[in-house]
């Protein structure tokens, strides 16, 4: 039986309290050490079970494990991207001027950067329960859209989604987001590109 890849919880590129007052140290600690760690642990366990099921040619077990692998890999991927897309408000990367091409594209699509933020916040606040809001780009047309996905349980600001949606704009790592915008799919996935190919 081949040993599956083992994933680890990535270190945060800043301290747990570095995003305050916009995101509290309590929330950051909870989501990094508890939620994200659980996704990593559960993903590794599911991949090990899948390797065992594969070695035994147990198709039923393999099929059942796909749900756990997709859910936990999604939690690991989403949180990793999230941590990388944030930066302390005092950082030059938190200034939207560090993403000129992206801001220009957002303004062209929504009329202004502020109108994009309003549209994104409205989508976030419309999520029932837990989920994610995403700015995505269609690879063929290049058009930008705001979409949502369910689950991966983020409980921002102890469920005060309005304050969270307003405050997060102060800690977005625009330099990182600009690099993802300009770099194509590989730049979006970064260190997670290996995991992308296995889900």
TrEMBL record:
Enzyme Commission code(s) on record: 1.15.1.1
GO CC annotations, alphabetized: mitochondrial matrix
EC primary class: oxidoreductase
Signal peptide range: none
Residue stretches making up the Manganese/iron superoxide dismutase C-terminal domain: 101-153
GO function terms (MF aspect): manganese ion binding; superoxide dismutase activity
Binding site for Mn(2+): 31, 79
Coiled coil: none
Protein's cellular compartments: Mitochondrion matrix
Subunit structure: Homotetramer.
Protein name, per record: Superoxide dismutase
Organism: Hyaloscypha hepaticicola
């Amino acid at each position: 039986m081949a040993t599956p890849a083992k994933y680890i919880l990535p270190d945060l590129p800043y301290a747990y309290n570095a995003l305050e007052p916009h995101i509290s140290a309590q929330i950051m600690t909870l989501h990094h050490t508890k939620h994200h760690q659980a996704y990593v642990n559960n993903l590794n366990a599911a991949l090990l079970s899948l390797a065992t099921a594969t070695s035994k040619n147990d198709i039923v077990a393999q099929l059942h494990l796909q749900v756990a692998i997709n859910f936990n890999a999604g939690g690991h991927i989403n949180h990793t991207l999230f941590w990388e897309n944030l930066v302390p408000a005092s950082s030059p990367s938190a200034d939207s001027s560090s993403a000129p091409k992206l801001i220009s594209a957002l303004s062209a699509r929504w009329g202004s950067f502020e109108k994009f933020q309003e549209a994104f916040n409205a989508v976030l606040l419309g999520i029932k329960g837990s989920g994610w809001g995403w700015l995505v780009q269609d690879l063929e047309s290049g058009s930008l859209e705001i979409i949502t996905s369910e689950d991966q349980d983020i409980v921002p600001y102890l469920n005060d989604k309005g304050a969270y949606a307003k405050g997060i704009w102060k800690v977005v790592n625009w330099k990182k987001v600009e690099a993802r915008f300009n770099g194509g799919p590989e730049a979006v996935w970064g260190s997670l590109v290996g995991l992308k190919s296995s889900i």
